[in-house]
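User: Hello! I'm new to structural biology and keep hearing that structure can be predicted from sequence alone. Could you demonstrate with N-acetyltransferase? Please show me the input and the output so I can see what each looks like.

Assistant: Of course. The first part below is the input, the amino acid sequence of N-acetyltransferase. The second part is the output, the predicted structure written as tokens.
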Amino acid sequence: MLQLLKYTRKDFDDYYSIVADDQVMKYITGNGMSKKQAREKFTSIMQINEEENLLGYFKVIDHNHGLIGDCKLVRYKYDRSMLEIGYLLKYAYWRKGFGTKICKKLLGKSAEIAPKDNIIGVIDPDNVASKRLLEKFGFKSCFIGEENDIPTEKFILCR
């Protein structure tokens, strides 16, 4: 069983254990984050988590394996009327069905919080697994190009 626990300030080491890995970050930033980069990002995560009661960034805990990754359900920064979902898994848990379970949990949570809001997922166009996962849940590609000099594909789930 998976549990999503909102990050708190004491969780930096857990966060860093995920984002420092080059394989995990391949489709996010291209490389694992340095401790300094991770601290900066974690500070922004804490700001979002403290401002938002139900939304935010979460540790993903599997009752058999412990910490396996993290995920987010946040207001989309370019259109606050939409929600954005995303997740990262430690490499050892890739291709084991955890992405599907996380997506299902995030969509369930979004239906409780804002059932009429559209949801966006932003991925690297080369990330075939994430593309298939979003399509499996009914998301449709709505943008392929570059955003902030990063190859980007956006998928939307209209409600």
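User: So the tokens describe the shape?

Assistant: Right, they're a compact way of writing down the 3D structure. Reading them back into a model, for example: The chain has one domain: 2-157.
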